[in-house]
Amino acid sequence: MISVTHLGFPRIGARRELKLALESFWKGDTPAQALHDTAHGLRERHWQLARQAGADVVPCNDFSLYDHVLDTAVLFDAIPAPYREVYDENPLTGYFALARGLQDGRRDLHALEMTKWFDTNYHYLVPQFERDQRFVLRGDKPLAELAQARALGIRARPVLLGPVSFLKLGKRSDGGDPRELLDALLPAYAELLGKLKAAGAEWVQLDEPALVLDLDDDDRDAYRRAYAALAEADAPQRLLTTYFGGLGDNAALAARLPVQGLHVDLVRAPQQLESVLPLLPDDRVLSLGVVDGRNIWRADLDAALSLARRAGDRAHWLAPSCSLLHVPTDLELERKLPAPLRHWMAYARQKIEELRLLADALTGSADANRDLATAASARAARLASPLLRNAEVRKRLAAVEPAMTRRASPYPQRAKVQAQRLGLPLFPTTTIGSFPQTAEVRRARAEHKAGKIDDAAYRTFLENETKLCLREQEALGIDVLVHGEFERNDMVEYFGEQLDGFAFTAHGWVQSYGSRCVKPPVLFGDVVRPQAMTVDWTRYAQAQTQRPVKGMLTGPVTILQWSFVRDDQPRADSCRQIALALRQEVLDLEAAGIAIVQIDEPALREGLPLRRADWPAYLSWAGESFRLAASGVGDATQIHTHMCYAEFNDIIEAVAALDADVISIETSRSRMELLDAFVRYRYPNGIGPGVYDIHSPRVPSETEMRDLLDKALDVLEPAQLWVNPDCGLKTRGWPEVRSALRAMVQSARGLREQVAAEVD
Ligand SMILES: CN1c2c(nc(N)[nH]c2=O)NC[C@@H]1CNc1ccc(C(=O)N[C@@H](CCC(=O)N[C@@H](CCC(=O)N[C@@H](CCC(=O)O)C(=O)O)C(=O)O)C(=O)O)cc1
Ligand SMILES: N[C@@H](CCS)C(=O)O
Ligand SMILES: [Zn+2]
């Protein structure tokens, strides 16, 4: 009989309990035990919730205090040398030092590099290996979570990041290939599997999302060797999970690895069932990922049912396509969503209920079949709803001409006009947009939302924050100012709230990294900008200062990528609609006298399809959308863009084709490594390679930033170089921001003086 399971539950808590516990612990307000108690309670609650929703078996070790990739690294003792002492002294302090850096007077440790988890908005910490890395089973987290579940009488399946994906997600400090470490790693995995079996695990889930990527011969060889070695271990039955896409040309490889079960993503790649079924050896069962773990729409249960029927006896589990980490916890909490939308949606808990329904329908339950019909009609109602379409938008989009996606003049010509207009010094200093979203700012917003303070009082509060922020920037000597984004809850949600076609939620929290969460807006219909969204605030800020203030927008690709988007039309069409709305905003900013407009596209890279063959089409519509938003302005208006957490080597042409006058990029955690692509490409426009890591509370020194600037200047023309942090400062506190920016401005001044002296 088919069972219901899932591959991982959101960890943060429906009311972000983990976030609150973490931040309170980091501040020193609560002891470690309080954090462990919250974690313990959340795990139990999530298992119970999934069980009540209808899961027969639930995973364990899907929980993490910060990140599951970091958990895997410390589990196998892949702790880089500088962190060893602190980890040995106190594993929890060591764990958070790896995640967030540590400056305690005695030690000054950077955080590990952080990057995107495949094509999601979740960030993982990049494991850092040595050339002669040794792995031992150091931790017992999977065993402890299994024991916790078993003590509650819950059948749990421990989840481990599979060895090949784990190595492929890491980096070696000598630049070598982490896959060479496989033989050193496998005994530690085998030992753990043995212990899990001894502790009563019937199955273990080995996540190998890398199996949906383009693999080379060495990868394939690594997979064969790894799973052959694990097959030798005295292990529980192994469920190999693949997700975020189809196996494609890796189908035969995955199907024949010596495991007992294979999970396939049948939401992103429903057609792969046909190719996988004939490849499966007789003794292999399938887990069918038939409910979307990446979006919030109710599933197409009829289609899911057909897939399950087609899989026949091979179908052992019904599951979401991937871990539910990427969706919010429980739609029950969403009391204020407009009624039709609420009926159209499903969060983690509801997705498990959908799977239960499917499993029951497969056994012929009459109740289930009736509920199935209700679910199908809710889905059909969404697809047929007039709320989804706006004829005017469609007409305007059809009238877009290619010339609207190109700036009128080439960059060198624009640069001259802009230099004359702006009169900036060499190495202009700026920031990326947001300034600290202090407890006070968030409280004021919460009170305004709750009706405790009126519009006028909220406006006055924000004006004051903005004014103070501008004064701070002036005092620090920054050249191009920002208004600070105090009016924004989030750089995407804020725009979603102002555009028709989007809905926003109250409890749709999804973990982005560590304790940081986002509430992706829900794009359900055609996009219309009923009125200007940022012009008032930007005009207000510009009126407070003689220095240029950048207008600050989130780009179309990023708004698309960080929203839950409609699935009834191609993403490209939705993106163009957003771009058209933003184009109007850019023009309104220009008309209000704003000389610089930054259009952030931090998610451009993350949106890349996982298979290279799909890249050109994506890069074409994504780039075109950005340019549609940006290109309406005259030569004298300077367009900036900003990207963080991205490798640029393989998309540099597409980045260059955006033709932004200035791009700021995250480079400090990789010590300017990410600049290489721009150098190789001879990127001609302005670049601000981030000189300090804003995701860590650590304050960098002037020398450190100067060192990075010198590195940048080794390879860039002086006229190209801008000086800025890696990303926005919203997560930081004012004291650290002041110190860091003071040092940043000093480092730029020092560089200016040196260049001036050299010219003399
Ligand atoms: C740049 N990044 C972003 C990504 N994705 C986005 N959608 N947005 C991004 O900015 N992806 C890549 C990176 C990831 N980085 C971050 C950085 C910081 C955060 C973050 O700080 N998130 C906040 C939540 C932001 C938010 O929506 N805030 C709201 C609600 C605030 C709140 O919690 N209010 C309380 C009441 C407060 C009080 O009474 O004092 C409540 O509602 O209970 C707001 O400001 O209004 C976070 O706290 O995690 C995310 C990603
Ligand atoms: N303007 C945004 C970009 C973040 S990627 C900010 O400064 O927070
Ligand atoms: Zn950023």
What's a concise summary of this model?
The active site is at 695 (proton donor). This protein has 28 helices and 23 strands.
List the helices and strands and how they pair.
Elements: E1 3-4, H1 17-27, H2 32-53, E2 58-60, H3 68-75, H4 81-89, H5 91-100, E3 102-103, E4 108-109, E5 114-116, E6 123-125, E7 128-129, H6 141-151, E8 156-161, H7 163-169, E9 171-172, H8 182-198, E10 203-207, H9 217-232, E11 237-241, H10 251-256, E12 261-265, H11 272-276, E13 285-291, H12 301-311, E14 315-320, H13 339-344, H14 348-362, H15 366-384, H16 391-398, H17 411-422, H18 439-449, H19 455-476, H20 493-498, E15 500-503, E16 510-513, E17 516-518, E18 522-528, H21 535-543, E19 550-554, H22 556-561, H23 571-591, E20 596-600, H24 615-630, E21 638-643, H25 652-657, E22 662-665, H26 676-681, E23 686-689, H27 702-715, H28 734-759
Parallel strand pairs: 1-14, 2-8, 7-9, 8-10, 10-11, 11-12, 12-13, 13-14, 19-20, 20-21, 21-22, 22-23
Antiparallel strand pairs: 3-4, 5-6, 15-18, 16-17
Helix pairs in contact: 1-2, 4-5, 8-9, 12-14, 14-15, 18-19, 23-24, 27-28
The protein binds ligand LYWDKB7T, 2-amino-4-mercapto-butyric acid and zinc ion.
The site of 2-amino-4-mercapto-butyric acid (HCS) has 12 residues, from loops.
Structure description:
The protein is an alpha/beta fold and 760 residues long. The chain folds into 2 domains: 3-330, Alpha-Beta Barrel (TIM Barrel); 436-759, TIM Barrel, CATH 3.20.20.210. The chain is 44% helix and 12% strand. The strands form 7 sheets. Strands 1-14-13-12-11-10-8-2 form an 8-stranded parallel β-sheet. A 5-stranded parallel β-sheet has the order 19-20-21-22-23. Helix 4 (81-89) packs antiparallel against helix 5 (91-100) and helix 23 (571-591) packs parallel to helix 24. The longest helix has 26 residues, at 734-759. The chain is globular, with a radius of gyration of 26 Å. It binds the ligand CN1c2c(nc(N)[nH]c2=O)NC[C@@H]1CNc1ccc(C(=O)N[C@@H](CCC(=O)N[C@@H](CCC(=O)N[C@@H](CCC(=O)O)C(=O)O)C(=O)O)C(=O)O)cc1, 2-amino-4-mercapto-butyric acid and zinc ion. Zinc ion binds next to loops.
